[in-house]
Amino acid sequence: MLDVVIVGAGIAGLSAGISLRRAGHQVRIYERSSMNNETGAAINLTPNTTRFLTRWGLDPEALGFVKAGPIHLHDPATMEITATESHADSGELFDADLWYAHRVDLHDILRKMATDSAGPGVPVTILANSSVVRYSPDLPAIHLQDGEEVRADLVVGADGIHSIACETVLGRTNPPLPPNHYNSCYRFLIPAEVLEEDPETKFWNENVDGLVRLFPDDKTNRNLISYPCRKYVSENQARKDMQLTKQQQNSQLHRHIF
């Protein structure tokens, strides 16, 4: 059994913790935030991701994730469908499906899988409000903002876009680079029940399960994309503040538009 320290309790850090726990190692994760206010919007869980998530026991459908289906390309002026594609055959092609999910929902279940005493191996320990300011690869060890040195057999850096771990390995600063294409993306979530209230927006709820709508405008090089990301179909799998009755389930399909 190795004593492993992971820096960062995001999706990558939690996933590493789950995998190492399942392999029989003891894991501690140091996270600088309080983990009380996770943020995010819709994300895609591609087959190479869902393949191992489901092997760990994650049930996407029970968690309210939305299985990917058809893709409709629309004329942005007339709204007519100009072409269709589909991700519905991902399971057959890649031995795993493509799912749409809310990042917060994925983060919540990964945290539970990492720390739940019912899982295999030793539960992962997460130490929130722990800012790592330096790594010592030769020991190996991490150094916290309060001066504490934490040693381990293995240190895993999952500390995000401003990663100190990357700078330590590279031996130089590694700032994030701005894109050279000057693209911008505006993302927002709309509850399906809000769309249903206006006759002009009810269209977005039609045949919605797993459907992606793409409105490309070649003249302005702008696109509008809409797809569902959250649908609680199993009441006892939802968080307490999101438990739904049968009548409420259909109204809680969230659309993600950017």
Automatic annotation (TrEMBL):
<dbReference type="Pfam" id="PF01494">
    <property type="entry name" value="FAD_binding_3"/>
</dbReference>
<keyword id="KW-0274">FAD</keyword>
<dbReference type="InterPro" id="IPR002938">
    <property type="entry name" value="FAD-bd"/>
</dbReference>
<dbReference type="GO" id="GO:0004497">
    <property type="term" value="F:monooxygenase activity"/>
</dbReference>
<comment type="similarity">
    <text>Belongs to the paxM FAD-dependent monooxygenase family.</text>
</comment>
<dbReference type="GO" id="GO:0071949">
    <property type="term" value="F:FAD binding"/>
</dbReference>
<dbReference type="InterPro" id="IPR050493">
    <property type="entry name" value="FAD-dep_Monooxygenase_BioMet"/>
</dbReference>
<keyword id="KW-0560">Oxidoreductase</keyword>
<keyword id="KW-0503">Monooxygenase</keyword>
<protein>
    <submittedName>
        <fullName>FAD-dependent monooxygenase OpS4</fullName>
    </submittedName>
</protein>
<dbReference type="InterPro" id="IPR036188">
    <property type="entry name" value="FAD/NAD-bd_sf"/>
</dbReference>
<keyword id="KW-0285">Flavoprotein</keyword>
<feature type="domain" description="FAD-binding">
    <location>
        <begin position="2"/>
        <end position="169"/>
    </location>
</feature>
